[in-house]
Amino acid sequence: MKVMVVGAGSVGGFFGAKLVQAGIDCSFLLRPKTLEAVRNRGLTIRSHDASFTVHPIAASDPRELPAAELIVLGVKRYDLDAALEQLRPVLTQSTTLLTLQNGVDTEPRIQALLPGVPLVGGVAYIYSKIAEPGVVEHYKRGALAIGAWEGSNGSVALSDVQRLFESAGVTCPIVQDIRRTKWEKMCWNVVFNPLTVLINDRVSKALSHPELRAVIEQIVEETVAVAKAEGVALPGDMAEKTIQWSQEILDIHTSMYDDWKAGRPTEIDHLNGYIVQRAKARGLSVPVNETMLALVKAITEPLPLGAAVLTLDGQVIQPIVLDAEALAKLPNDAQVHDVAALWPGMRGHGVKVRALLEIATPEIGVDHVTFHSADGRFAATFSIKEAAETGIVLYRQDHQPLPVEAGGPFRLITPGLGDLCANVKNISRIEFTKGPGRDTRPR
């Protein structure tokens, strides 16, 4: 059987490397950066029991790889749509897709985007992470479970897929109800993936506080209720089973924790987010899952204010982020409706810097502020007194956001400072400092 693995991350990289090590005809579809690393140094698995390196056929275009009977989808759920689109030119009725994503919405998404493509549902049980492109660190487990997916007749027999992986030393049982198996793992994922992010620690800490036991039980109970509404009956003691399954992996972080720390997106929308979405569709209440979703997104994702934001930070008690709408809500006496009255020839509506400085709470001893351009090239520093008395931040022109060509979305001017007047375009940050900060103005 010819196999193609999409992705060489913590899941696809491990299982695909095991196939190559066993002499199975297995190629890899990789992103350019990973492709370069694998071509130059091979794909390395650093494992707790035995490390090894393989040198598979790899490309970033599936049309450059041998035609495969089995394609193993090793990408994260949030990359699924892009991966399917890339695979579209090489998919046929004789090509079977094996899914290994977390969550329970991968197969329905594939069937919606690629009707008729044969599917095998899969669940991966492994703890591993990407150390660097082309290097996977494997800590615990390394097994699969596979099963037929309703509405899809795989072109490859399940028993052949099972033999393929077991010949590579990977335990791979065939389960009767792969959908239920995926929901059972979902119960674990919606608990420990978000909790390890929220507590910034390992699974063991999430289990060590009695107060969190009640939270864990509630998350699972809500998930079981949604599963039932979706036609999947889970055991009544699912919460206790979820806790029991965690005993052998107490010392691990989760994949969501690893993604967060590495600056990658998380799968929260396809885990707790999916539970929230389906609960709303079914008229169910899932308040703890809603809380997990909201808190993880607040911690791991950029503020949803768009690119036009102004940050007040540095030596302050709490950084503050403002957009143009927030500036417009400052009191009328903080607004400068026509800067031409103070600076002839300059057009625009601004807000006095004094009002911005009053919003933040600086640390004891702070006496200067520095205004930084978004590209990092320009900065102007003032004493707090100078900034408060002369500074204006422009943010509108002709009742519209200040355009880039006019120095927007935020532009600092300081009329009244004479030769020391500052005019910093596209400012994105006001930094509070003890003593002067960076200043690019000629002196």
Report what the structure shows:
The chain is of the alpha/beta class and 443 residues long. It has 3 domains: 3-176, 3-Layer(aba) Sandwich (Rossmann fold), CATH 3.40.50.720; 181-300, Orthogonal Bundle (N-(1-d-carboxylethyl)-l-norvaline Dehydrogenase, domain 2), CATH 1.10.1040.10; 309-433, Alpha-Beta Complex (Sulfite Oxidase, Chain A, domain 2), CATH 3.90.420. The chain has 15 helices and 20 strands. The protein has helices spanning 12-21, 32-41, 80-87, 106-113, 158-166, 178-199, 203-208, 210-229, 238-245, 255-261, 272-282, 287-300, 324-328, 353-359, 384-390, and strands at 3-6, 26-29, 43-47, 52-54, 58-59, 70-73, 96-99, 119-132, 135-148, 309-314, 320-323, 335-336, 349-352, 368-373, 379-383, 392-397, 400-401, 411-413, 423-424, 427-433. The chain has a 9-stranded mixed beta sheet. Strands 12, 13, 16, 17, 18 and 19 form a 6-stranded antiparallel beta sheet that branches. Strands 11-10-20-14-15 form a 5-stranded mixed beta sheet. Helix 6 (178-199) runs antiparallel to helix 8 (210-229), helix 6 crosses helix 10 and helix 8 crosses helix 11. The N and C termini lie far apart (72 Å). 42% of the residues are buried.
